[in-house]
Amino acid sequence: MTRTRVKICGLTTASDIQAAVAAGADAVGFVLYPPSPRAVTAEQAAALCKLLPPFVTAVGLFVDEDPSVVEAVLEQVPLDLLQFHGDEDPRACAAFGRRWIKALRMRPGIDLRAQRERYVGADGLLLDTFQPGRAGGTGARFDWERIPSDLAPEIVLAGGLDAANVACAIERVKPYGVDVSGGVEATKGVKDAALIFGFMQGVRDGDKRR
């Protein structure tokens, strides 16, 4: 049985880390984008990374950030993977010598195959819901039928996922991984351990049906 990998994003506290790890998350995401309600500083992210056990991937999320700022973060925070969530071009994403993924908002008419060719150096593509003026974290889902089945093994599915719909998403899309933030929050920016565990159960249920 293929196992869907899971990233819990927007963690801000030690209890968030503990819940994500205990629930079996493969990766945790730190939002290094100050306008976000889930943003952390480099110092906070570094402290949270120290709580991670082996084999849990630390992901840093950036949105059209100045390269010097990204470099400064990398000097402080032991990130395993970079996630670029803005309009960064491939050269900008690859400039730091780290593994990276490119988030794409599902704008009308987007050509995912062309985008995969453009970002060929990425470890994968993360697909999120498009809303004008929002870099992500919309809490809304998009039409999963827009994802070509041949690209699914390289896709991390995001956008409006929660415990109630993630099993269906996995069954229909068959992505490599799923990414959740708002769907496991009690209030915006505040994670809920019970919702995290419920989401992970939904992933396991989806894996049985994919």
TrEMBL record:
Q: Which Gene3D superfamilies match?
A: Aldolase class I (3.20.20.70)
Q: What EC number(s) would the UniProt record show? A: 5.3.1.24
- The record places domain N-(5'phosphoribosyl) anthranilate isomerase (PRAI) at 6-201
Q: Which CDD domains match?
A: PRAI (cd00405)
Output one GO MF annotation: phosphoribosylanthranilate isomerase activity
Pathway-wise, it operates in: Amino-acid biosynthesis; L-tryptophan biosynthesis; L-tryptophan from chorismate: step 3/5
Q: Which keywords label this protein?
A: Amino-acid biosynthesis, Aromatic amino acid biosynthesis, Isomerase, Tryptophan biosynthesis
Gene Ontology annotations of biological process type:
L-tryptophan biosynthetic process
> Catalysed reaction(s)?
N-(5-phospho-beta-D-ribosyl)anthranilate = 1-(2-carboxyphenylamino)-1-deoxy-D-ribulose 5-phosphate
Kindly report, in one word, the top-level EC class recorded for this enzyme: isomerase
- InterPro entries in the cross-refs: Aldolase_TIM, PRAI_dom, RibuloseP-bd_barrel, TrpF_fam
Q: Which Pfam families match?
A: PRAI
Superkingdom, taxonomy of origin? Bacteria
NCBIfam families cross-referenced by the UniProt entry:
PRK01222.1-4, PRK01222.1-6
Family classification: Belongs to the TrpF family.
What name appears for this protein in its UniProt entry? N-(5'-phosphoribosyl)anthranilate isomerase
Origin organism is Thiorhodococcus mannitoliphagus
Lineage of this protein's species?
A: Bacteria, Pseudomonadati, Pseudomonadota, Gammaproteobacteria, Chromatiales
Q: Which gene encodes it?
A: trpF
